[in-house]
Amino acid sequence: MSDYKGFQFKTYDFSKQLDTHIDLIDLLHNTIGADLKKRPENVRWLFEPVQQYLDELAALRENPDKLVYRHFTFAPEIVYAMDCISYVPEALTFMMPTEYLCALVDEGREMDVPDHFCGFLGGVTAPLLTGRLPKPKAILHCNQPCDNSVAWGSVLAESFPDTEMFILDNPYGDDEEGVRFAAEQLREGFNYLERMTGKRLDLDRFREVMAKSAEAYRLMYEINEYKKAIPCPIPTSSILRPISVAFYALTGTEGLVGWLEKHLADTKERYEKGTGGWREEKMRVVWNLSWPIFDYGVYDWMEETFGAIAVAYHSAEPFYQPPDIDYGKASYEELLRALALRNNNHAMGRQGRGHFMTFVNDTLKWCREFSADGAIFAGHWQCQANWAAAQITKEKLMEELGIPMLIMTVDQLDPRVVSAEQMVSRLEPFLEMLAEKKGIKP
Ligand code: SF4
């Protein structure tokens, strides 16, 4: 472990050459999966979404004809409605142990992948270009949220020249015209999946998936209402990874609904007892844009040293408001419209397309609703689109809510760019300032 003023952060062993030519699904099962199984029974349920997605990936071995590549901001409901399995290469990097991620990023750089190419995609570029990832039956791609993602489409096309791709042209605006525009394309998307997989869309299955998706969002909004309480009853940083996996990969599944019901029951119990997360809450912050995932010790440090509880993580929060329709009887048109709304409001996608004031206004919304004392713009260094909104977001937060925002560069995945110790050395004076402003002693 490495040390910052007595606080221990993770250390990494980059001294060995790792074999990157291994099955990445096996790697996740043998590392993250094995680790989850070792967790104490009473907290294991917290990580169910991660386990659910690992199980889905494992199921690909027996069902290669169901394999659909899906961009991480393309709503998974379309894949579940077709009874297929969604394979998101970016999700592998999101969950992968740091040493492997770095080795794979380096392998890509040796193949001339530029260092301004996002590590989420760059971490799986070498396996993709060298034919180490499974061959898809179909590929669902889209043009949001960033230039890296658009470039990723070319990598996919070059890697699977015999597999036609479907690319959703996400609309610029969020008005009804934008919803109709997306719905019409999703109709074509279903036609495409039928053609590529040889399966027929079952309308009842589509109804069921959209009903479960709507239920998942209803539960999440209810949980978020409790998050507004002081102290925040949820140890938010501990469930950040499962929440992200849940809403980027599992909407439309029964497993997610079941997990959210447990999550809500736990939240209510904590709320009624007046208990917060793991540590005493003295101030509240919102992480906008990205947040480090290679060492969750950063959040522990903030909580232990300053009582600074992160109440919202911009790119992991829900935005889709499911339409109030009878999903059991809904027509195909109504379901397509709901799916279009879901897609247009996909977290991260929503703020990475169209006018950049969406990013600014979404930040204002989370900070206002969750009574934040400050915001942290942890800018993933390759996320150029949202970096453009950093300064105006900072000014708007001060102007409208009177709260400051720290702007700092991070690489969400790679500690060699900015280490946890470097991050907290930037966070420390900012949190000291918030503590002074609130008149509290860290
Ligand atoms: S939005 Fe940012 S983090 Fe996401 S793929 Fe693009 S560059 Fe990477």
TrEMBL record:
List the PANTHER family hit by this protein, alphabetically. 2-HYDROXYACYL-COA DEHYDRATASE,D-COMPONENT (PTHR30548:SF2), 2-HYDROXYGLUTARYL-COA DEHYDRATASE, D-COMPONENT-RELATED (PTHR30548)
List the InterPro entries: FldB/FldC_alpha/beta (IPR010327)
Organism the protein comes from: Candidatus Desulfacyla euxinica
What protein family is recorded? Belongs to the FldB/FldC dehydratase alpha/beta subunit family.
What's the name of the protein?
Answer: 2-hydroxyacyl-CoA dehydratase
